[in-house]
Amino acid sequence: MKKYFLYIFVIIVLAVAAVWFIKNQASGTINEREGSFAVKDKNEIAKFILTETDKQAIEISNANGLWMVNGKYAAREDMMESLLEVATRVTSLCPVPAAAHDNVVRELMTHHVRVEIFDKSNKSLKSYWVGGPTTDGQNTYMLLEDNGQPSSRPHLTYIPSFKGFLTPRFNAEEETWRTRAVFNYKESEIQKLCVQYTTDEKNSFAIAKIANDSFAVSPTNEKFRINDSYQQKYIRQYLSFYSSIFLEAFVNDLPNRDSIIKTTPYCTITIIETDSSVNQVKLYRMPVNKRSKMQFDPNGNPMAYDIDHFFASIHDDKDLALVQYYTFGTLLRHYKDFFFKPNSGK
Questions:
Q1: How many alpha carbons fall within 13 Å on the CB side of residue 232?
Q2: Whose CA is closest to 216, among 325, 335, 107, 134?
Q3: What are the tens digits of pLDDT across the range 157-180?
Q4: DSSP character for 318?
Q5: Distance between CA atoms of 250 and 291, rounded to whole angstroms?
Q6: 98 and 41 assigned to the same domain
Q7: What CA–CA distance (Å, rounded) separates 280 from 346?
Q8: In terms of Cα–Cα distance, which of 58, 276, 67 is closest to 175?
Q9: Residue 154 reports pLDDT greater than 50
Q10: pLDDT tens digit string along 195-238?
Q11: What value does the mean pLDDT of the chain take?
């Protein structure tokens, strides 16, 4: 009889162990699935749709190797790199602790960015909600979607070796995502370039390609022509400045935006590309304002213009931007600068 009791006891123990194992294995599988936010292969990703709680949304898609914002503008490379990094490396630290679960879910329902990631065939790869940071700012609350439905538990997420929360990488404002590049040319892509100072014809000039490795510089008004040999090295060095020129910020929301564009520009830079495309930028002096670093000249007189910034009209006057003199100053050369400069004392 004792032997039977022993057998029954062993069977009961094994049954309990089996139930515990199955339950915990299933729970572990759910935990793993609920925390699987990353897309394994970056090359699979062809499109993102980011939608904020207020329904503001943008689409960022890959068009022949170029990431575009809403199909209209090239995306900022730095932001695109950050977005792809988080999409492929985001990792779950753990589910949100039970004590904080309800509060986190309520906050996610109120404030979140819904992230949808698709492949080239428009198949969904991942979909999840991105909330705010944890109290210490080192992790981010995220909630995965499964077949279009939110999972039961949000997770604390992070990127290995990165300190900080991830929410800013999912900004859904179109203007924030637009590239800041104004000029981004190789020398071989420039057919002609003109720098026209509205009130200073003597210093205005044009550069034209005359061969694959040769350019000519000329005044915009023939009466200012310099009868001397210009230097190819000066021209080519100058053209190299156009490889990386960026604006500081778009300012299309300025109340006097249209008035600024209608004023006479200080300088107009026009580039005709080898495919005949035209890229024109008009620079306008910016009046001194409360943010200007220099308010007075050395004699104590009020400054009329900000010496650090210009307004710039770009994209056929569709956009107004703020640009730095530090960046654009290298482009504001004079016609005479392309000619031989003798050393002092010789």
A1: 8
A2: 335
A3: 999 999 999 999 999 999 999 999
A4: T
A5: 17
A6: yes
A7: 41
A8: 58
A9: yes
A10: 999 999 999 999 999 998 899 999 999 999 999 999 999 999 99
A11: 88
Distance CA 9, CA 6 (A): 5
| Shared-domain flag, residues 166 and 202 | no
Is 22 domain-assigned? no
In a domain, 2, yes or no: no
| DSSP assignment of 132-143 | EE-TTSS-EEEE
In a domain, 15, yes or no: no
173 in the same domain as 140:
yes
SS3 274: coil
State both tokens at 182: 């104004």
Number of domains in the chain: 2
- Radius of gyration of the CA atoms of the chain, in A: 30
Residue type, 79: M
pLDDT of 1: 53
Higher pLDDT, 87 or 288: 87
Same domain, 170 and 190: no
Helix (H) or strand (E) holding 324: strand 319-324
Least confident interval from 51-55, 279-283, 300-304, 342-346: 342-346
* pTM for this model (two decimals): 0.77
State which residues form the domain around 164: 33-177
Distance CA(100)–CA(171), nearest Å, equals: 26
What's the rounded Cα separation, in Å, for the pair 223 and 195? 17
Comparing C-alpha atoms, which of 12, 154, 168, 169 is closest to residue 92? Answer: 154
Structure tokens at 8: 């029954």
Residue 304's pLDDT band, with cuts at 50, 70 and 90, is low
* Nearby residues of 72 by Cβ (< 8 Å), 6 or more positions away: none
